[in-house]
From TrEMBL:
Keyword Transcription in annotation: no
Keywords noted in UniProt: DNA damage, DNA recombination, DNA repair, Metal-binding, Zinc, Zinc-finger
Source organism of the structure: Clostridium facile
Protein origin, superkingdom: Bacteria
Name of the featured protein: Recombination protein RecR
Record keyword Signal present: no
Signal peptide per UniProt: none
Similarity annotation: Belongs to the RecR family.
Length: 199
């Protein structure tokens, strides 16, 4: 590739580093960015920077928010005695879209995966344990994906939580094994919540 096209190659490589984006799509996105006006390109870049600067983790549930405490955690009408533990902020959006859950959440920001070098200390587990010790919690729902890593994380957490005198449940398998929560339809998610089982 010609020397003057190196910025374009770097742009394509940045797009390719995003999950689910292959090199072919990355090149298409890079070329599309070049067709944008300078104002639109600047706004696009500024949106990324602004998100990085303004969006933080909620002090309570670790979900992404602009405020110290997110809207869900500060909502007094929600059941704060029931915590739904999920892998990512995308999973919170999936449950909220299904409208079947009225408790609160805790986002782990990952799953235990020794193959990828991810251990419990790299997840937001310490904050969950502290939260349960500091507040009145009756039930913790393990809503990690039904994958090997999701199951391992759920079992690890259930062992930590049992001595804290809380009921630990697991989503029922309305979600297909190997599937991901963000792709599940609303009815499947609602049914999985309704038919959850104690671990």
């Amino acid at each position: 590739m010609a020397h003057e096209a190196i910025p374009l190659k770097k742009l394509a490589e940045q797009f390719a580093s995003l999950p689910g984006i292959g090199m072919k799509t990355a090149w298409r996105l890079a070329f599309y960015v070049l067709t944008m006006s300078k104002e639109d390109a600047t706004e696009f870049a500024n949106s990324i920077l602004e998100a990085h600067e303004k969006i933080k983790k909620c002090e309570i549930c670790q979900n992404f928010t602009e405020k110290p405490v997110c809207d869900i955690c500060s909502d007094v009408t929600r059941d704060h005695t029931t915590i739904c533990v999920v892998e990512t902020p995308k999973d919170v959006i999936a449950f909220e879209r299904a409208r079947g859950f009225h408790g609160v959440y805790h986002v782990l920001h990952g799953l235990i995966s020794p193959m990828d070098g991810i251990g419990p200390e790299q997840l937001c587990i310490k904050q969950l344990l502290q939260r349960i010790q500091d507040t009145e919690v009756h039930e913790v729902i393990m809503a990690t994906n039904p994958t090997i890593e999701g199951e391992a994380t759920a079992m690890y957490l259930s062992k930590l939580l049992k001595p804290l005198d809380v009921t630990v449940t697991r989503l029922a398998y309305g979600i297909p094994v190997g599937g991901e929560l963000e792709y599940a339809d609303d009815m499947t998610l609602s049914k999985a919540l309704e038919n959850r089982n104690e671990i």
